Amino acid sequence: MDKQTRDKPLDVAIAGAGIAGAALAVALRQTLGRGFSVAVFDPLLSREPLRDERAVAIAGGARRLFEAIGVWERLTDAQPIRAMEITDSKLHDAVRQTFLEFAEDEEDEPFAHMVENRALIAALRETAEEAEVELVASGIETYAPDESFARFHAGGKQYRARLLAAADGAQSKLRALAKIQTIARGYSQSGIVATIGHAREHGGKAVQHFLPSGSFAILPLTGKRSSIVWTEESAEAKRIVALPPPEFLAELELRFGLQLGELEVLSPARDYPLQISIARSFVAERFALVGDAAHVIHPLAGQGLNMGLRDVAALAECIADNARLGLDPGAPEALSRYQRWRRADTVAMGLATDGLNRLFSNESTPLKYLRDLGLGLVDRAPGLKKFFAREAAGLTGDVPKLLRGEFI
Fold first, then answer.
1. Which residue among 155, 222, 287, 339 is buried most deeply as judged by most CB within 10 Å?
2. What spatial distance separates the first Cα and last Cα of the chain, rounded to whole Å?
């Protein structure tokens, strides 16, 4: 790429080398081969991966996708979640009653696997390099579509691609350039994230405590470690993360409990403002939104990344189906199919997580009675529990082939 203007157009250009963008690039390359040109643009590619202490829950469908594209085998420290417990209580209650429990199904398949962000991004980058995905350490600065191409500039050079996919995050610059608006609302909550060490084994069990200020999730990592996702009112979250270590540990123990023994904070606690944001359209002319650029939801169900990977699987299948027929990967028909496939499901999940947050994050005694009754009824209905587990795994409805572990 020494010329100022690239002579041969790209088939697909992807803005953003995060999990969704890199996964889409690898999926297309593994599916369509080296004759199908894919490039990823991100200024962060010029640096070593940032030290990211966060961890993500990889649901069953997303795990199948990573297996199909050759990424999963590189993740040697994935921790299976073999059981889940859901409680609903006030902060100072002496006993936290369990209202809903899940255990592994008859196929002995974990509900999800916990993977640390930095390990997943490193595995995706290594796989992309081996697949000869073109990695460009520049951000995309412009976007101008015409009948045949999406034309753009990156690093002072001009490019054209049959399709431009924006996976450049919640504050997507390209979404704004494509004039796609969002339906967005900030929560008065922030999520506190940290890695915690504990004296006892967790046994692969995840715990979700619903407290009046928000959910407190304990998610197992390899060894005697867990990741926490701790929701608080935003002002309270800032106060908590600014506490001296002994005081922070006291606040943590109050919510974590001592069932796993003595606790140790292994990473700096960080707070992130929470919001719901869904793009009014997932596509424009020769343009598609993927992952956080298309949607951001409340983290209480752990579905944000998994929804982004559903986007990846659906868009990759739409592109591959066209490409194999010798058709344009950025044609309106392919993009319309992607939009129909993903936007309704995204809106439904966004509304569901928003509703759950409203239902549980309050001090109302009547609401507590009703939600605990509902949790108890689900706990006593094996068929309903299995449905919810399959829904969380991304295995209900019109499931893209990659999420079923099939090649496209």
1. 287
2. 30
